[in-house]
Design brief:
Blueprint (H helix, E strand, L loop, with lengths): L10 H21 L5 H17 L1 H12 L4 H27 L2 E3 L9 E8 L2 E5 L7 H12 L3 E5 L5 H12 L7 E4 L7 H4 L5 E5 L2 H13 L4 E4 L5 E4 L5 H13 L11 E5 L3 H15 L16 H16 L3 E4 L15 E4 L16 E7 L2 H9 L6 E5 L3 H10 L4 E4 L13 E2 L5 E2 L1 E2 L1 H7 L1 E8 L16 H11 L8
Helix pairs in contact: 2-4, 3-4, 3-6, 4-5, 9-10
Length: 487
């Protein structure tokens, strides 16, 4: 069944179409299960070329989906980030594909032990709406570098971007190599229930749990990137103006709709007033009081998300918080642009302290000692990122050793993600598995151990009947003498 013939309101039609694509990709993989380095670099090169050709069309589509999306941010985060990752993969995939020689146990010395990295097969990638190109092409590039076929499910909230991406990829990839599903499905499980060989999902922990349950039915391995409440800890002596500017940049880029955006700030209690003043000044400098007319300030993606943020602020006010907007807020602004809101006097029962904010809201909490910070963070789910603002090496090390998170940036926010020689992934509530770099290649490959016995190596000495002198000597050498008192 072809895409144009599918009635996307019909569950049976959509199910048949998706199953047909999956079967075609599976058959193509079985016919060519191990592409060589040249073929993989060629596919990655085609993807990079198309990204360059379509850059302006993709930026326009993202702007249309959001209502207003900064063209510079779209190119910096979605397009440049994807290009940097493709460059890295093209440069290194040939070396990563080579068998990895491993050391045998002393007992098997002179034999050969190695690990070969084989493609898994058909990979399903489920993409969020906040960075619809970067978070589609990043996993796609890793999957292609590992030699897989790919089905991409684009988010309904970014349907225009998904349609452009589908057109862009259809020009260079056959449907049995890469296919983009951008349409609204009558049942999301029609995609997640396909027996993929691996699933990559980026989104919320709640949806991630549902994805994992669906994958369990087919014993599918999953990579989950789930976000969470990423803290920014400002050290005792760190320049407060610099910390405020960088944290505000994280909360206003893409209007804070970033899985690794600083979610809340922990600031020395004696420096909170200065931090708030500097944060407000930073918003005025970077975005401006007339933010609603600033084409470089991104909208909240849709009315539902905009209302969610307003409801969180209302909940905080009702429970005693002080909410400080950094500019007058117009809830009827037609493009859903929203200034940064600083929230003080927060309590644990407020939604702003329980849920990932994913928008321009910044709770600021005071602390008196680093021990207090460590206790506070240890009592909460592990976030996708942690930010430490400190020039004190000891303070940095205390925070690194005493906390757990997916990744860390010191003295800034988020930049660890776009360095593609290092893995990107969550920890605990913020996800499992990684992609980017060699870890991403290995995540989407099967590491197959191969042991090769040399022709005259006498492993038959370990065959029955047991208790030969060789077996006794070997066991005595490696295990030592038993303790006769242990009966």
């Amino acid at each position: 069944m072809k895409r144009d013939d599918v009635d996307f309101a019909s569950r049976s039609d959509v199910g048949c179409w998706l199953q047909g694509i999956f079967a075609a990709q599976q058959a193509a993989f079985e016919a060519d299960p191990c592409s060589n380095a040249r073929e993989r670099r060629s596919r990655l090169g085609l993807l990079k070329r198309q990204l360059g050709r379509y850059q302006d069309v993709l930026v326009e589509a993202m702007n249309a989906d959001f209502g207003c999306r900064s063209a510079t941010e779209s190119k910096l985060f979605d397009l440049l980030g994807s290009t940097l990752e493709l460059n890295h993969l093209i440069s290194h995939v040939g070396r990563w594909m080579k068998p990895s020689r491993r050391s045998t146990e002393l007992l098997f010395k002179s034999n050969v032990l190695q690990v070969i990295y084989q493609p898994k097969g058909v990979v399903g990638i489920i993409v969020p709406w906040n960075f619809p190109i970067y978070l589609a092409l990043g996993p796609l590039a890793a999957a292609l570098a590992a030699g897989n076929r790919v089905m991409l499910k684009m988010p309904e909230a970014a349907a225009k971007t998904g349609r452009v991406l589908a057109r862009m990829l259809e020009e260079v990839f056959a449907e049995d190599e890469v296919v983009v599903v951008f349409e609204k499905l009558p049942d999301y499980e029609l995609f997640t229930s396909l027996p993929f060989n691996h699933i990559v999902f980026t989104g919320s922990p709640a949806v991630g749990k549902a994805i994992m349950r669906a994958a369990a039915d087919n014993l599918i391995p999953v990579t989950l990137e789930l976000g969470g409440k990423s803290p920014a800890v400002v050290g005792v002596d760190y320049p407060i103006e610099d910390a405020a500017r960088r944290i505000v940049h994280g909360k206003t880029s893409n209007a804070g709709q970033i899985c690794v955006a600083p979610d809340y700030a922990l600031v020395p209690r004696a420096r909170m007033d200065a931090f708030i003043t500097m944060a407000r000044q930073s918003f005025a400098t970077m975005v401006g009081i007339s933010y609603a007319s600033n084409r470089n300030y991104t909208s909240i993606i849709n009315e539902r998300q905009f209302q969610r943020l307003q409801d969180m602020l209302a909940d905080a006010r009702a429970k005693g918080a002080t909410v400080i907007p950094c500019a007058p807020c117009d809830v009827d602004e037609p493009r859903r642009r929203m200034p940064l809101h600083i929230v003080l006097n927060c309590s644990a029962d407020m939604r702003v302290m329980q849920e990932e904010l994913f928008g321009p809201i910044l709770p600021v909490l005071g602390y008196d000692s680093m021990d207090e910070v460590l206790r506070y963070l240890s009592q909460r789910p592990r976030p996708l990122a942690l930010y430490c603002f400190s020039h004190d090496r000891q303070e940095q090390n205390i925070l690194l050793a005493g906390t757990r998170s997916g990744g860390v940036t010191i003295n800034d926010w988020g930049w660890h993600v776009v360095n593609h020689d290092a893995p990107f992934g969550g920890n605990g509530n913020s996800g499992m598995g990684t992609y980017h770099g060699i870890e991403g290649f290995r995540e989407l490959s099967h590491a197959r151990t191969v042991f090769k016995r040399r022709r005259f190596f006498p492993t038959q000495l370990f065959h029955p009947p047991y208790a030969s002198w060789v077996q006794k000597l070997t066991l005595r050498y490696f295990l030592g003498k038993a303790d006769p008192l242990l009966k």
